[in-house]
Design goal:
26% strand, BirA Bifunctional Protein, domain 2, 2 domains, 31% helix, 16 strands, 5-stranded mixed beta barrel, 8-stranded mixed sheet, elongated, alpha+beta
Length: 439
């Protein structure tokens, strides 16, 4: 008999089928045994009656998280007993045969059947192999998968070519100290802080490129929004007339992602009481204007035009109040706060760059890049960096490259803010931070 996915069981009423999955909960009511059985597609109720002696004996032995194979008759559940919350809630399986495929060697450290599953973060991550089995936790990663799928879809629809760039580099991408140094055979190497240089090489050939890939930052943060390895959603586009075009493209991208999640992840969003409001045009304000708003509206003083996490939350409140937008673009960051390849503005103290803030957290940075070889060389020297360390990068510009720009977007932060998670680490299967290298 061919195995049927649980989500397909309503199509087989009156027929005997075989399903397989994990036992979520076993409930004994009088002489009847009820089992909530789940697989990758959903959950269904199985019923074991005492007349089936061999099956009944097996059912009495099973516990949560046993993996079992079941053959049985698909029956409609009476109206009062139907579970309207489940897509399969109007049917049940009357078990004819049951086989235990795998069983836990010891008692589970947490109750993964708990629908609320309010564990502290350390417990949630220390027992990650087990806690991922909880339906509410799984919902996070079904939404995450949809974000990744939607990003790739919209990029391809907009004419971007997917590329994969090296994560082991001969030099730190953006200089500074926030890189991981590794031994690469007989020489020193670095884990990629960003695919930036290779994206720019990509647009010199393909015009529009994107990547979904790992990014490593050796920053000793202890916050709810930082980790040391994350999945970046990067893009770069050529033949632009200015960095406003980059923001236009990113705005379309975010709209597509959120609408895709709203359409395809309704039950997962419900588990967190989360909703995706109707998308509205994203307001764009200069960083200097944002600083004035924070001072006048909230009494928040900003030094050196470097908005902190509290400032990001407050400017998001302002955007929601004034524009009914969950997003806000902050533009024209100071020269000294941006990488050396950032295009200067008309006022050279500022740059043609932006951050995108979503519900109080910066989820993307981007802008226009310098595309002139001599200007780039001058900027590297101005930063007291060594041009010889950037020879391969500079060669991109030596041989000509059109005006271009792009962004780096944090995938996990999108999921965190969609669901209102307390920590970004909840949106990562196996997070890596200053203290956590396992599991």
């Amino acid at each position: 008999m061919t195995r049927i996915l649980i989500s397909e069981t309503p199509n087989f009423v009156g027929k005997i089928i075989e399903i397989a999955g994990w036992v979520s909960v076993r409930r004994d009511h009088g002489k009847l045994i009820f089992i909530d059985l789940r697989d990758r597609s959903g959950m269904v109720q199985a019923v074991v009656i005492p007349d089936k002696e061999e099956v009944y004996k097996i059912a009495k032995d099973i516990r949560s998280e046993y993996a079992v194979k079941v053959a049985g008759l698909v029956k409609e559940r009476p109206g009062k007993s139907a579970n309207e919350k489940l897509a399969t809630g109007k049917v049940e399986i009357e078990v004819e045969e049951m086989e235990i495929i795998a069983r836990p060697e010891e008692e589970l450290p947490v109750d993964v059947s708990d629908p609320e599953f309010n564990l502290n973060l350390e417990t949630l991550l220390d027992y990650r192999i087990v806690t991922l089995r909880n339906e509410k936790v799984q919902a996070i990663f079904k939404i995450y998968a949809q974000v990744l799928e939607a990003y790739s879809e919209v990029m391809r629809e907009r004419g971007f070519l997917e590329i994969k760039t090296p994560k082991i580099l001969s030099s730190a991408t953006e200089g500074g100290a926030n890189f991981f140094k590794i031994k690469y055979f007989n020489q020193e190497a670095f884990l990629a802080q960003s695919p930036q240089f290779y994206k720019q090489a990509g647009v010199s050939v393909f015009e529009r490129v994107f990547e979904v890939g790992s990014v490593f930052r050796a920053e000793p943060h202890f916050t709810s929004r930082h980790v040391n390895e994350y999945i970046g959603l990067d893009a770069e586009m050529a033949f632009i007339s200015g960095f406003a075009e980059v923001m236009d493209e990113l705005e379309k991208t975010m709209q597509y992602i959120l609408e895709s999640v709203a359409k395809n992840c309704r039950s997962e969003l419900e588990k967190y009481g989360a909703e995706i409001p109707t998308f509205v045009p994203i307001p764009r304000i200069k960083l200097t204007e944002a600083v004035e708003i924070l001072s006048n509206e909230y009494g928040k003083k900003i030094e050196n035009l470097d908005i902190d996490s509290e400032g990001e939350k407050l400017i998001s409140q302002w955007a929601k109040k004034e524009h009914n937008s969950d997003f806000v673009f902050l533009t024209h960051y100071p020269y000294n706060l941006r990488p050396f390849y950032s295009m200067p503005s008309a006022d050279p103290e500022y740059t043609e760059t932006f951050d995108l803030i979503y519900r109080g957290v910066e989820i993307a940075s981007g802008g226009q890049r310098i595309n002139n070889y001599q200007e780039l060389l001058k900027n590297i020297k101005k930063r007291k960096m060594k041009p010889e360390q950037f020879k391969d990068y500079l060669d991109i510009f030596k041989y000509g490259i059109p005006p271009h720009g792009g962004w780096g977007l944090g995938s996990e932060r999108i999921v965190q803010k969609i669901l209102g998670l307390g920590s970004i680490k909840e949106a990562i299967l196996f997070p890596r931070d200053v203290k956590r290298l396992t599991p």
